[in-house]
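Hi,

I'm pasting everything inline rather than attaching a file, because the server keeps stripping attachments. The sequence lines come first, and each chain or strand is labelled.
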Amino acid sequence: MMAKTGKISRRKFVVGGALGTLGVVSLGTILFRNPIRRKIYEQVGAMDNISYLGEGVEPMLWFEITENNLIKLYSPKVEMGQGTFTGMAQIAADELNFPVEDIQVEHAASASGNLDAFSTGGSTSIASLWQPLRELSATFRVMLQEQAAKQWGVPSGEIEMREGTAYHQDKTKTYAEIASVTKVWDVPDTPELKPVSDYAYVGKPIPRVDLKAKVFGDPIFGMDAEMPNMLFGTVLRPTQIGARLVSLDKSEILDMPGITSVVEEEEFTAIVGRSAHEVLRAKQQAKVNWEVDEEWTSARIKSMLEVGKGKEALIQKQGRDVETDNQTLELAFRTPIGAHAQLEPNAVVADYKENQITLKIATQVVALTRKEVAKATGIDEDDINVIPTFLGGGFGRRLHTPHAVHAVLMSKAVGKPVKYFFTRQEEFQHDMFRPPTHHILKAELNNEGGIEAVRHDFCSGDVAVDAALLPPVLNHILGADVGAMRGALCQYGAIENIRTVAWHVDLPFATSWWRSLGLLANTFAWESFMDELALKTKQNPLEFRIQHIQDDLAGQRLKAVIQKVGEISGYQDKVVDGVAYGFAASTDAGTPCAQVVKLSKEGNQIKVHKVFCVMDPGLSVNPDQVKAQCEGAIIMGLSASLFEKMEVEEGALTPTIYGPYQMTTLKTAPRDIEVVLLQGIDQPGPVGEPPLGPIGAALGNAIRRLTGERPTNMPFNLS
Amino acid sequence: MTISFYLNKQLTEIDVEDGSTPLLWVLRDTLNAKGTKFGCGKAACGACTVLIDGQAVRSCVYPIQLIEEKQVTTIEGLGNPEHPHPVQIAWQEEIVPQCGYCQPGFIMATAGLLNENPNPTDDDIDNAITNVCRCGTYYRMRKAIHKAASLTQDESTSEETTELETKSAE
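And the predicted assembly:
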């Protein structure tokens, strides 16, 4: 990253710049290369105070030291609850030698250049930032140290950098004091990084850096964003799948209180007015005629979506196929359409000016959003500043935010900033859903009770196929949907004969990314099937798994989490006093996770007493937040397994509100969850999605053992 | 019409054309108290929970015309970093929030529950707190609710709570 030694004044470093809007003075700003040419404006305040070498060198704003010796760290990743800001602060603090509580992590606006070209998703944030952020931080620290050496006229090696201050004998200078008088910076080669064992913050369960903001109700979300003189807008959306607007009584809408405009664009029609309440009321009362070619039903969707239908792709081939004559077991599984149901509706504020657009938006895709706005308006991407807010839940719902374009076009039409957000009904009906799936698993057993051959066929709607985020060339691997196939492959490499076949079907409504993509459904099918095989051969299900795991590093890590969860849960392969155990394991994006569910029946209801979870995500930068991700994923997976289901009735997706769309609440969430983290590799690995793998199957396996009946359809019908 | 009420103990007067306007939108967009969240607009998720005369109420379906003379407490008035409410102390100690969007609603619902029932059992909690959290922070929340109950009892608490308790007892 920083290969050359040399003085790079005004190349990679910027000094000065008042951040008027925040009322602080930025004394030092470190900029690193960005492959895309970009201007810096707004982010670092007054342009007069800023200089950088433009030609071919594109700066990215990472750090800023404020007058009172705080460091602002601008994050190219968005914070949606996963704790990335906290992990970043810990990583930076340890290499900067700076107190973690004095690092303020903020979202990088796209105009700052520090733009993630792809997304915040896929459980990749900390894993991908681990190396570059440590290198950036260490480099910045050495730059400060060398400046202190110059300012004092002493050898750099005699200076100690500690807690945001440089020390030499009895002299001290804070980082802010060093930066404030530096005009020319030396940029060294990337210094040697500290051994992880020397880190004070990495690996510690420090509280989230956004904890106070979230406990005291700070206005940090997309729904909370404002701009001066803004109006409110809302787009007319149909309740039925595929419906088109035929006509509306525009003059009646314009007569309603508080309504200022009806904006008619090729793609959409919107009502704009002075308050949220008034535009929502106008939308409710508006006389709008919709036309639909075909009324879809759940039954039709189900009949379309079956193994054997749609586009076929062989995605795993080892040895031979299962031979029908020798087949010992076949089971089929289904999962339903799932909604994201994140609590914060999609929201955006847009300000369109002749040559400049500003957006404040809750999005997981800053770069894609900017690109789409540029395309829709013809305004250059450099003149569009996308300012991300905190997300009131991501879960994949915001991996495409095309409503940004709607808000921009509304703002253009009315000449003022416009705030636009989804109603809850729209969130449920115009979600990009978790696709329904169908799975068939078949196996041959050998004389020793082991698996001789196994085959998994699964059928899914789109996850990554046609996703706006991916270029078409990337969204298929071997002709299959890379999202739908998460968790679809057999993780038991010691089995000699394996086939996995993907079937892809186009559905009449949008389906896409939902936390962990295909993992929840595929693992439910795989691990329920493995459990049934263990029962059939009268083997302990943990040992049955272990004997089919190959002996490489991935296999060793998977075995370790399985053994550990057996140990902490006291797994029993029989029902004891009405309490049953269920076990399952998965490997997602390289992170193995094993879970045990302990439950009983109370009346007609399943009561989950405790969930045990052992995961090996490599190095846990913040073990408390890794555990929080496990707890959340477990509860989200229980909710999907026990309750959640979208139907299609009379052409419309339903239900459209919480409650009827039943989800886990305090009453149905397990009162106890125990998470143990192992570390099988030295660096951080994926965290946020892998723990969603085993939970559905672990729950189903416990129910199977308790009741004798195998749950094969989500949500499980227990009556 | 002009309506006056107490927002976080401050006498507040507003002019509204439509008395059916939900309290939520008045708080958020007229009075700029954005800690109270819009989640569903139909009292189904609890993200908009505030205290009205000490009781937890879902403000997205509460018509502003009914608020006359009442005491409204929002997350901004419950406590602040210097003087946190016991529920906010417990929430920080248990590191409850993830995305954080539903949290003010849960915190207000918990404050309302403790006003009525200072030492709730698990079943009391299950029945009283029916808000929705998508990140799945329930496990930590339950611990925080119990902790807040014990803090409330230990300290005989802050001024605000005492006042609210008195108010709801009336």
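Residues 164-170 of chain B have pLDDT under 50 and may be disordered.

If the labels don't parse on your end, tell me and I'll reformat.
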